[in-house]
Amino acid sequence: MDIKQIQDLIRFVAKSGVNEVAIEQENFKITIKTNQAATYVNATIPAPQQVGAPAPVAQAPASAEPAAPAEDDTSKYITVRSPMIGTFYRSASPDKPMMVNVGDEITTGTVLCIIEAMKLFNEIESEVSGRVVKILVDNASPVEYDQSLFLVEPM
Questions:
Q1: Which residue in 10, 68, 78, 128 has a CA-CA distance of 20 to 30 Å to 37?
Q2: Among the four given CATH numbers 3.60.40.10, 2.60.120.430, 3.40.50.300, 2.40.50.100, the one describing domain 78-154
């Protein structure tokens, strides 16, 4: 496996929403793990074939303060971000009520939305307690990794 193939594999794993991929061949082993905070790459390439191991994918630090104009002060809010690429849904199905609405009080573990990635429906739970101030994504819209989904006023 060459560097280009490894880079393509890293991109695929990052886009797919899969948590871990491990590949072992006779003289080659690679494990790619992802989570909400970062993507890690652990590659062991035999010395004769080693051209250079790929660096871990750099992630911008997640900030609790989204960039906003001065007149719209959102610095007191916590931003809930997407842990994966996929399609954002506010309810479990079209005939079900929305999981959360603006003004709802939430606690740690409250399911805020669902993100569909590769036909898997992933419930996104809140990691904070507070009140939903703003929903930043339209229902059934595509979302990117680390995209802002909700603004929550901490309690």
A1: 68
A2: 2.40.50.100
